[in-house]
Automatic annotation (TrEMBL), chain A:
Lineage: Bacteria, Bacillati, Actinomycetota, Actinomycetes, Kitasatosporales
Domain called STAS: residue spans: 16-118
Pfam families given in the database record: STAS
PANTHER family in the record: RSBT ANTAGONIST PROTEIN RSBS, RSBT ANTAGONIST PROTEIN RSBS-RELATED
Name of the molecule in the record: STAS domain-containing protein
UniProtKB/TrEMBL annotation, chain B:
Gene3D superfamilies documented for this protein: Histidine kinase-like ATPase, C-terminal domain
Annotated stretches, region: Disordered: 1-35
Any one GO MF annotation of this record: ATP binding
Cross-referenced CDD domains: HATPase_RsbT-like
Keyword Transferase on entry: yes
Domain Histidine kinase/HSP90-like ATPase: 58-159
Domain of life: Bacteria
Protein name: ATP-binding protein
Length: 136, 159
């Protein structure tokens, strides 16, 4: 009903990577709003990569799984690579038993490894690292 | 599968000779599923119930996820319904949590097909019903055209 609702999830920018995290649960509307806002930010800021920290997410049911898969596909069409990091072990076990493989979704053990996979590294001099990562 | 966090919430380490741990199981409670907000309410109630019963973290996640799938089915396919939580005991003294998910929708025309992975008529992935069955110890479905659908799913503590 509300035409445009903020997902209430901060999306930070580190160079050409967007970093965001999901809260402990995701209702349907928040999931949709989050997808829309993230998609807009990828396009507007020319992001090459997106890191989504899901370490606080306590449940991934098939709706949330579908949201993550669609988000990854949309981002890829825009030229950005998505890595989902920090899945809790009980969530991983449950997803496998549910029969969901999160096809096409790259994962990492934690945000640090996810950022490294996206090519983002902590530079010796933070300022230089930030400058190097700035697009255009 | 055991995880480090599991033992924290495991049921009290009493011998299984006594049936009662001194606490009476909570009374059954029903929750409506009419809106998306209700889906969250159900998840919260089921999470609290799994803690009450003494499930470890993996079983908590399994049962809450199964409840989420079943409640969503009732909401999306059944046009709304109710989720009832019961706290059964089996003859061996194990505690359980039983989800009874009812709707008055059109029913499931072909249950075998609906339980097959990848089949969906809604917004999910088609893993909801079959997946929920795998996450629970006992699972039954009663459905028919015009009769609505009742899913009864139970998970037991290890001992």
């Amino acid at each position: 009903m509300t035409g445009h609702r903020s997902p209430g999830v901060p999306i930070l920018r580190l160079g050409d990577v967007l970093v965001t995290g999901l809260l402990n649960e995701l209702d349907d509307r928040t999931a949709i709003a989050f997808t829309e806002e993230l998609t807009e930010r990828i396009s507007a800021e020319g992001a090459r990569g997106v890191l989504i920290d899901i370490s606080r997410l306590e449940v991934i049911d098939s709706f949330v799984a579908r949201t993550l898969m669609e988000l990854t596909t949309v981002a890829r069409l825009l030229g950005a690579r998505v890595i989902v990091a920090g899945m809790r072990p009980p969530v991983a076990i449950t997803l496998v038993e549910l029969g969901i493989e999160l096809v096409g979704v790259e994962t990492a053990l934690n945000p640090e490894q996810g950022l490294a996979a996206l090519g983002w590294r902590q530079a010796p001099q933070p300022l230089e690292g930030a400058r190097r990562g700035t697009p255009r | 599968m055991a995880l480090p966090g599991d033992s924290i919430l495991a049921s009290p380490g009493t011998k299984r000779s006594t049936r009662s741990d001194g606490r009476r199981p909570p009374a059954p409670a029903s929750y409506p599923v009419r809106t998306e907000e209700d889906l969250l309410t159900v998840r919260h109630a089921v999470r609290a119930a799994t803690v009450e019963v003494g499930f470890g973290l993996v079983d908590q996640t399994r049962v809450v996820t199964a409840a989420s799938e079943l409640a969503r089915n009732a909401y999306v396919h059944g046009g709304g319904g109710t989720v009832t939580l019961e706290y059964p005991r089996d003859p061996r003294g194990r505690r359980g949590l039983r989800l009874i998910v009812k709707d008055e929708g059109p029913g499931i025309a072909d249950l075998d097909v609906a339980l097959t992975d990848g089949f969906t008529t809604g917004s999910g992935l088609g893993h909801g019903l079959g997946g929920a069955r795998r996450l629970m110890d006992e699972f039954s479905v009663r459905t028919g055209p015009g009769e609505g659908t009742v899913v009864v799913a139970t998970r037991w503590t290890v001992r």
